[in-house]
Amino acid sequence: FPRGAALNHSCAPNCLLTYELREGVSPVQVVRAMEPILQGEELTHSYIELGLPVWKRQLLLKDTYGFECSCKRCSGDGFASLDLQLVAAADDSGAVPGLGEVCPAPLALPCPERDAALTKANQLMVRAAHEEDAATELELLQGACSIRETWLHPLNVEVTASHAAAHTASMAAGNWTAAARHGRRLVDQQAQIYPPWHPVCGLQFFTVGELEEAGGGNARPWFEKALSVLRVSHGEEHQLVVDLRERLAQ
């Protein structure tokens, strides 16, 4: 897809690349404009995960694609607060970098109690990754979530990682209540990090809706939110969008 490959990267993209796969037909790449674009404005999409602070995005782009990003999100000050929150302590006093990470942001004041607790959370995450019993894995991950939420900012990437792992483990364990709870927590985080049109948000809305439905809850608001995003990001004829319309029509 040479035309799609010609599009440049931006950490504040205005387009999304999707692919239409139909049996017996060659794959089609679709460039979707996700917000109003002025005449002469460049079309851009994201090459990397956007839920990272600027220095991690810059390093990833440099290592993978060999360039330094100068988009408005990387070069302006409008996202500086979000970048810090992604690595911040719970009291927003400064950054708490992960083990072995180099962080250029101002660091939080030393706190042995916090450091000991976060070390324990990391150990719980490692134990969970090697645990074969899904219920035990979930218990370990929920312990890590609790510790990290106590000491880290709600948007901190480590908090997000623990909830994402617990969300997956909950579904593996068949614990739909826990899965919905962790899914809602991810929605709260993603809504503040990603553009409102981002498919990550739409897919998470859909997943939480399914979990609410499985647990006897009210899935309709979640499916409506999912439809509002996915009909734009995936197209009106995508199977997910068709399924959502059918569910909402019932």
Shape: globular
Radius of gyration: 20 Å
- Total number of helical segments? 11
Poorly predicted spans: none
Beta-strand proportion: 5-15%
Pfam family, one: SET
Protein name: SET domain-containing protein
InterPro entries: H3K4_H4K5_MeTrfase (IPR050869), SET_dom (IPR001214), SET_dom_sf (IPR046341), TPR-like_helical_dom_sf (IPR011990)
Domain SET: 7-47
Describe this structure in words.
This protein is globular. With 250 residues, the chain is mostly helical. It has 11 helices and 4 strands. A two-stranded parallel sheet has the order 1-4. The two termini are 39 Å apart. Helix 5 runs antiparallel to helix 6, helix 7 packs antiparallel against helix 8 and helix 10 packs antiparallel against helix 11.
Question: What tags apply to this protein structure?
Answer:
H3K4_H4K5_MeTrfase; 56% helix; two-stranded antiparallel sheet; Beta-clip-like; TPR-like_helical_dom_sf; 4 strands; 11 helices; SET domain-containing protein; single chain; two-stranded parallel ribbon; 250 residues; Serine Threonine Protein Phosphatase 5, Tetratricopeptide repeat; SET_dom; mainly alpha
